[in-house]
Amino acid sequence: MPPKSFSKIFWKQYLLLEKDFLETDEFVTIDKNNFKTFSSRYTYLLLNICSEIDSIAEEYCKVLGRKPKNIVAKVCAIVTKTPRIKNERAITKCPYEVIKPAPFQAFDDKVAAEWWRNYNLVKHARAEEPSDSIPNSQLANLKSVLWALAALYILCQNLYKLLGESDLQLEPSRLFES
User: Fold this and answer.
1) What is the pLDDT of residue 109?
2) What distance in Å separates the CA atoms of residue 109 and residue 122, rounded to the nearest whole number?
3) What pLDDT does 169 receive?
4) Quick check: helix, strand or coil at residue 46?
């Protein structure tokens, strides 16, 4: 995939999702104290961001010549080729509180990270209310969405680098430092 196609297909979508997320800051400040805040807008964002993560992870794996079946296998394939992603952090920039999500740190070859598990519970079992924890609908919260967006940002940045040198300058993120 040429970098120009990447920009049109994946980076443009990232920027749209980031814009939608930043608009929520008008109502819920992007701050650690608000991590458990949930809303219908966060549900919308979590579902869309994670769907995009699955798409870009699929494309990333194609570039690597791999065809894993699920997100855990995709992340494992990506981390095997690009080990730094496992601990890579997407650092929020001013004017937002400095938050440093490392969204792939908790993935291993058998288990997905909490934010991805939350996405699956919201996607497949949103109406359920487990007796030992909060209702699944409340898992679409600020923290899950921020970690998912950080994961998408990290995948985009690393796939763009993997595609090779380009004179094309990507529009910068308004949320994360480059």
Assistant:
1) 87
2) 22
3) 84
4) helix
